[in-house]
Every structure is written in structure tokens, then in C-alpha cells.
Design goal:
Largest sheet: 6 strands, parallel
Strand content: 15-25%
Strand order of the largest sheet: 2-1-3-4-5-10
Order of helices and strands: EHEHEHHEHEEHEEEHEEHEHH
CATH architecture: 3-Layer(aba) Sandwich
Radius of gyration: 18 Å
CATH topology: Rossmann fold
Distance between the termini: 33 Å
CATH superfamily: NAD(P)-binding Rossmann-like Domain
């Protein structure tokens, strides 16, 4: 299968490249394909003629989007529109990676794929608009929502380990709940879906949930780091963009279709730390 990958230099894109070695991958990033340029995307799709597109590229600066909505819109909405149109013209299927931020985070029950969305930030709103753009243009799509992602590059796990080497005490938010998710598990889901005609919307996060404080404590426990972690509230760390208080996603559609291949978040973290012992 020939697959065009956008955002190939990002956390998920790097893992997709690893797991897709047996496929014919065409890896692109912002320096090789401007997804906001419809003409460039159309030419790329016609030249490559991929069987599928895995769209990992996104404007993910949650706080920055609050003051630069146009930039977020161009990448998350117009970029999705251009790629979906290219897929429609060339007959390719498309994976659009989305986010827990499409929900308002006020619930206390894991969100399923067809629960009402209510994004509270520019980032969440543009990702939802990108979802809708793909749905309207292309029937052969897989919209895959995830949360609290970590893999290659900068992420919460590496930040915590770096700070543990610099400080004796860390303060971490304890009133935001979600499911830490390894890019390994997410990429596994994506490639499994691409082998099916089960088009639609899916949630894909690691099993279980915790707060950022719990996550940090588990990182230090598994890494053998001696550092004091103090729980704090979101209100003590005000940010431009509102963070969802409850971001737990239920992988319901995976269980009902191909089966849910993802691991518990503690197990996935253990493997990540083993494979990234230098981080």
C-alpha cells in the first residue's frame, strides 16, 4: 500500500514511519508539503497517487491558537479540506487524527465517539471543523481521536524527567483527568484500520486514566527518580486556553469492530521508558 504521511517529523509521524516500513511510505512535513496550499496538495496527490493518506500534521499549539485563530484554521481546517479533496480525486482513503479537545471536558463518564461535541478552545474548534470537512468531502475516511499523546520528540514524559534532574520538587496539576497514550498504540490502531473498510469515527487512547499528577508520579516511580511531586489545581496555573477537566475517551467503536489493540497506560509507559532510557 502506498501511503502519504503528513506531519512525518512529529511524534505520531515518526512512529507511523517506523511501523510502516513494509509499506510504500511518502513522508512529508511542512518543509516539503504546504497542506494549506490547495494547488500544491492537488499536484502532490496526482503525482504520488497514494492508496491512503495518514494526516498527522496539525496546528497543536493550544495556547497560541487563542491569539492566532487564522493560523490554526488554515492548518487544521483548510489543510484537512485540501487533503480530503485530493483523496476524493485520486480515490485514496484518509486517516484524520483528531483530539479529545472536541469535547468540553465537563463530563465524568468516558466520551464515546457519538457523544455531543462542545469544543471550548480555538484548537478544539478547528480540529472539530477539520473533522467535519473530511466527513463532508470524503466517505472513505477514518477519524481517529486521541489524547495525552507522547512519543518521539518533546512531550510530558521527557519534560518531567528533565525537570526531575533540575529540581527537587515539582508541582503538577491534579484536577485534569485523561488517558496517557503512546504513539506506538495509536499508530498500531491506524494501520489496523487501514486494512479494513470500517470507515467512520474512532477513539484510540491507552486503557485506564489518571491525572497529570498521577502520571508524573508513575513516570518517576518507573524511572527510579527520587523527586517530590506536589498536587496543584488548574486555577494555580492559568493558561490562555481552557484545559478539559475530564478527557477520558472510550474506545467503543474499536471494541465493536476490529477489537481494541491498545495497552494499559502504565504498561505502555514502561515500554516507552525502557526504549528511551536516555530521555
Amino acid at each position: 500500500m502506498k501511503i502519504l504521511v503528513t506531519g512525518a517529523n512529529g511524534q505520531l509521524g515518526c512512529e507511523v514511519a517506523k511501523q510502516g516500513r513494509e509499506q510504500e511510505l511518502v513522508l512529508t512535513d511542512c518543509d516539503t508539503l504546504n497542506i494549506t496550499d490547495g494547488i500544491a496538495v492537488a499536484k502532490c496527490m496526482r503525482d504520488i497517487k497514494p492508496d491512503a493518506v495518514i494526516h498527522c500534521a496539525a496546528y497543536t499549539n493550544v495556547d497560541g491558537a487563542e491569539t492566532d485563530e487564522d493560523a490554526a484554521f488554515r492548518v487544521n481546517v483548510v489543510g484537512a479540506q485540501n487533503l480530503a479533496a485530493g483523496c476524493l480525486e485520486t480515490g485514496a482513503r484518509m486517516v484524520y487524527v483528531s483530539t479529545d479537545y472536541v469535547f468540553d471536558g465537563t463530563g465524568r463518564k468516558a466520551y464515546r465517539e457519538f457523544d455531543m461535541v462542545n469544543p471550548q478552545t480555538v484548537y478544539g474548534r478547528t480540529k472539530w471543523q477539520g473533522e467535519e470537512m473530511v466527513r463532508q468531502i470524503l466517505s472513505r475516511h477514518y477519524i481517529v481521536r486521541t489524547a495525552w499523546l507522547y512519543g518521539e520528540g518533546n512531550n510530558f514524559v521527557r519534560t518531567m524527567l528533565r525537570l526531575a534532574n533540575e529540581q527537587n520538587t515539582l508541582r503538577v496539576v491534579n484536577d485534569q483527568i485523561g488517558s496517557p497514550t503512546s504513539t506506538v498504540d495509536l499508530a498500531t490502531v491506524i494501520f489496523k484500520l487501514l486494512q479494513t473498510d470500517g470507515y467512520g469515527t474512532y477513539h484510540a487512547t491507552c486503557q485506564g486514566h489518571c491525572s497529570w499528577y498521577d502520571f508524573a508520579c508513575e513516570i518517576f516511580r518507573q524511572a527510579g527518580k527520587q523527586v517530590k511531586v506536589e498536587p496543584v489545581t488548574t486555577a494555580e496555573f492559568p493558561r490562555p486556553a481552557k484545559r478539559p477537566a475530564y478527557s477520558v475517551l472510550d474506545n467503543y467503536m474499536l471494541r465493536m469492530t476490529i477489537g481494541d489493540p491498545v495497552r494499559g497506560w502504565q504498561e505502555a509507559l514502561q515500554v516507552y521508558l525502557k526504549n528511551h532510557s536516555s530521555c
